[in-house]
């Protein structure tokens, strides 16, 4: 019996601001279909825009008058509909991190906090909102992804809201919070006995066989554009100014590159004055193919086998790694990696100074930020933005044994007083040890 394949309906929609797909390597052009690889050179495909049309449509005022979500920037995103899937994604806080800045010796530090992004507490809600809106336009009824956790959460949640069938693929060793955070939305979840790169290869076969809309495979040109909104929001939240320096986590390298593209697009259409922005990237030592290439001054990426607690950025063969390298070098930025112990300390540092509980990817970013400051690679006078991309409630296992325990007391005042004195004594000892 022949299995039915969920092929999308022919593309019929058009947009006044995005016109075609174009190969990033050879420049070959393609129709706006579910396609991500060039047939001529196997380079990645990207969405091409009509920036003159965007310039005519948008202004600072029109953006500010838009919805309180990523869709205030719709003219810059690859969707044609006037009714996108809007679940309140985006417009997350840009927190002026004064206490963390003082701890590190910086004058102007901001945290872009996607740990509170909606609906699933990571930046992936941005890319999935765009990808599933486009998938619906292209006629897909079943959507899927290869994920290290956060993307599975987002795809399942937003597919449920949109009424799309959903099947997601994850490595079988993911954190329990991320697995539960996907299952609650009732998709089909395939836990694969392998790492992310093996999961991704399997998904490519499934996409070709079943004709599903895989957000980070055949829908990748549209999906990845959602990350640009992290650049747009920072510019708007800084009072329509570019920062001097950004630090962001590196997994595939796509997020990093799209922030760069987003800044450049706002400059191109006249929404913000141009100036140099330095781009620094953060990786975990146990999965640091881009950092290794940067330190060795190579122009190619050597794949690695991931071995780190930072599972959400543990991609051993990063699709956009080469482009991340180019951006870091062109902007006079840096790419650095940190140990798992440093990642945990980064999570604790952000929590105790700014009240933000980030996952391991965010701990990586903060640990690298600290490392770069200590190495003199971030100017204390620069306006620096660190991107926090996910919530620590999803990776609680990483903190096991790394934080304190509650003080158990009897329901009596004297029991409280003894415990309070002990707590203050321990706090003073910790402070003295830190000073030494």
Explain the overall architecture.
- The protein has 436 residues and is an alpha/beta fold.
- Helices cover 38% and strands 14% of the residues.
- The chain contains 15 helices and 13 strands.
- It has a six-stranded mixed beta sheet, sandwiched between helices. A four-stranded parallel beta sheet has the order 8-7-6-9, with helices on both faces. It has a three-stranded antiparallel beta sheet with strand order 2-1-3.
- β1 and β2 form a beta hairpin.
- α4 crosses α5 and α13 crosses α14.
- The longest helix has 23 residues.
- It is globular.
- The N and C termini lie far apart (74 Å).
- About 2% of the residues have low confidence.
What is the straight-line distance between the termini?
Answer: 74 Å
The proportion of residues in beta strands is: 5-15%
Structural class: alpha/beta
Strand order within the widest sheet? Answer: 4-5-13-10-11-12
